[in-house]
Structures are given as C-alpha cells and as structure tokens.
Specification:
Helix content: under 10%
Distance between the termini: 40 Å
Number of strands: 11
Order of helices and strands: EEEEEEEEEEE
Radius of gyration: 13 Å
Structural class: mainly beta
Number of helices: 0
Length: 116
C-alpha cells in the first residue's frame, strides 16, 4: 500500500519561504511521477507542479519562477521549495503519486498560511 506523508507546512509572512517534503513508501518510488496540488478555502483542488521519473517538471503559471519541485529517489522523497510566497498561496498542499496515468495516491495534506 502506497503511503505519502507531507511535512513542512506552517505560517509564513508574505515574501518568505517554506519547503514541503513528501515521504513515500510502499513501492518503487523512483519510477513514478510525483506532484503537488493545493486547495484553498472555497476553491477546487489544483495542480501546482509535477516531476517525472526523469525529473522533467511542470509548473502552474501562478507559481513559475517562485516554486521548485525536486526529488531524491534514494530517500523516496519529493520536495517543494516555495519562495516569494504570497497570501494567495495559502492552501492545504497535497502530495500525490501517479499510477496508470492518473493521480491515484494522495497524502493527507499540509497547511500553508501566508500572512500579508
């Protein structure tokens, strides 16, 4: 059974930085695409960024140039470095893993709050 555990959320002032981590267990991490999603209050969940097993990346326009996704296959961990944070980045951030081309496995989420 795949398990994803996020950590690193918290409260930060606008302009600050946070790094989220997602530790994966349960299967061969290195061969799967990983991603970060977020859901703000009253809004739908949206994809923030993803990284393939070859480390090809995708970023939503809203975070390009500010957020960086990376993975450490030896540690079965994916990271999200968030810089120049804005109040509109406030959301619960979820780690996810693809299987069969779909986002099948999800973490429980980590709250990021950016104060103005």
């Amino acid at each position: 059974q795949v398990q994803l555990l996020e950590s690193g959320g918290g409260l930060v002032q606008a302009g600050g930085s946070l790094r989220l981590s997602c530790a994966a267990s349960g299967r061969a991490f290195s061969t799967y695409t990983m991603g970060w999603f977020r859901q703000a209050p009253g809004k739908e969940r949206e994809i923030v960024t993803s990284i393939t097993w070859k480390s090809s990346t995708y970023y939503a326009d809203s975070v390009k140039g500010r957020f960086t996704i990376s993975r450490d296959n030896a540690k079965n961990t994916v990271y999200l470095q968030m810089n120049s944070l804005k109040p509109e980045d406030t959301a619960v951030y979820y780690c996810a893993e693809q299987s069969g081309g779909a986002w099948k496995y999800w973490g429980k989420g980590s709250l990021v709050t950016v104060s103005s």
